[in-house]
Amino acid sequence: MNSRWDFLEWLGLDASAAVLIRLDDPEDLARVSAVSRSWRKYVVANGFAKRLCLRISPDVPNFSRIAEVSSVSKTAEVGCSAAAEWESLEREHRVYLYLSHCLGSSKCERNCIYQAINASSTDNYPDESIENTLEPSEMMGRRPSYWSSSGQRDPSMPESLTYKLVAGLCIVDEIKMKPFRAFFQYDHPIYSAKAVRFRMGYSRSELGIRSSTDQQSALVEKYHWTYTSPEFPMVQENVLQSFKLPKPVICLGGILRIELLGRVQKQAIDDLYYICVCYVQVLGRPLSPVLDLNVCESADSLAVTYFPDARNSTLPVTTVEEDAKDSSSWQSLATRFRHLGAIRWNQVILSTLLRPIQFSDDDCDADSDDNDDDYGDLEEEQQDLCRA
């Protein structure tokens, strides 16, 4: 106990992995990776940040390439493949740690709709166009504001509304919709759908990908959907109805489609079924300008660019950074380890982990640079997490 030793080496790499993989808070993982160079190397090399991100949201893709654009150049040595590979692992670690924090955080939720793209049909364009669904009020001037589908004799005929979000990468948590009540018709009927379903993805046309010459196939191939939600029943009420996704979802490409499944209300004047919506809201948070998505023309390869300088420096640093500088943060981390139940922790191990590290005069100089680099890594990752 009088000599220093590496906790990971003492416990063993396999047992350490069994513990670290059970961490469910990206802030804890950032602290672990800042203990020393050997701990950071172990966390980064084993991709614990990516594993954590996939546990939070299994729909997170495996990005084919991660680039970083920063005012601080971090170039690997020329001709050194090992250094280049390590830089790639470091970038992956930072990006997935940032995504993990954003997926687990509910702050900064806002309406993420940028513009309406199109509707599958419109009864009376432009008076009843999809553009009206962007206005929360049911009246614009002296006219009712809503979108209306065309009339159909078959009540099972679906409709769809397609929107572009404010960024190519957005975390979507909840969609809200308000069916329209025709107060100017007898008995004030409400033209809701029976159920709704949501798709998210990207536009193939923006990639320069040629669609099929067949018109029907071209419509199908115009978008590539990376996520499809379960069906949610819609109530025939003139209220803003909330449809919360099972888990927060990263919209890859910034395109969201609302599928309106089934019709419940006929219009008396023509005996046809309609669906009418007066307001749509998509709650979430854009990941730009910190992250930007690039889709290759093959549409099978997703690349992301990370801009660490784009983080909002005006936001106050939260207690994460303060806790990391305080010994109580390690006590909190050890408590999390203790409750994992995967390993029976020895009191000697815990006391060694939590006690202040004592350096001899001989190794103070040798380790000073190491500690500075480790604290710099922690500070950088904490800024990623705190300013998300």
Supply the key terms:
single chain; 6-stranded antiparallel sheet; 5-stranded antiparallel sheet; alpha+beta
Describe the structure.
It is a single chain. It contains 11 helices and 18 strands. By secondary structure, the chain is α+β, with helices and mostly antiparallel strands. It is elongated and about 85 Å long. Residues 207-220, 313-332 and 334-372 have low confidence and may be disordered.
**Overall average pLDDT:** 78
Determine the N-to-C terminus distance. Answer: 41 Å
The share of residues in helices is 25-40%
Structural class: alpha+beta
How many DSSP-defined strands? Answer: 18
N-to-C series of helices and strands? HHHHHEHEEEEEEEEHEEEEEEEEEHHHH
Spans where pLDDT lies below 50 across 5 or more residues: 207-220, 313-332, 334-372
Compute the gyration radius: what is it? 26 Å
- Report the major sheet: 6 strands, antiparallel
Number of DSSP helices? 11
What percentage of amino acids are in beta strands? 25-35%
Query: What shape does the CA trace take?
Result: elongated
